[in-house]
Amino acid sequence: MKFDRHEVETEFARWWAVGNAGEDWASWAQLYTPDAYYIDHFWGPLHGRDEIDLWIQAVMKGVPEIYGVLDWYTIDNEIVTFHYQNRRDNPSDEGPPYWDFAGLSVLWYAGDGLWSKEEDFWDRTGARDTSIEYAAACERAGLTEPLQRMTRRHWPESPSWARHDAPPSPSWLARDDVPGITKPRELRKLLAPLRD
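Now predict its structure.
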């Protein structure tokens, strides 16, 4: 189906602003069609809004220090391809201001402000390496609680919808029923009741 480029770009900006910038992951999950298919090559496939919502809340709760920084995006009819950095701010005075590991995603627009499919690729080696460096920086800075790590100091200058200058307040803070996870086996266990 052919979509107007302006519509696709406007809806992509909204999708990014709600999730990656605003961290309202509950509302972000509602921007997918009820039968959406989401594949992350580390976490595995997700089917539908409920699985997408549970996954994103649990994963982001597991790594509260990570936020998404948009590098670029392209639009080809209903397909948006975008490159971004998974960023961790350095809590210590020693070392770089932040650590990044790259991601590339492809997102399919379905119309009416909704997305029907997404496929994510990200640098697993970079994720592991930056995690080790970040943990050492937290130790140097004396950070012991997960919420102490939740800073967002290095957003991109533009576009304006790709940044959030207010203090972070992710939707998972209100989800006491959802544990933070970092391993696919934890996700499989969490999703099992939805898949039975």
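Residues 180 and 186 are 9 Å apart (CA to CA).
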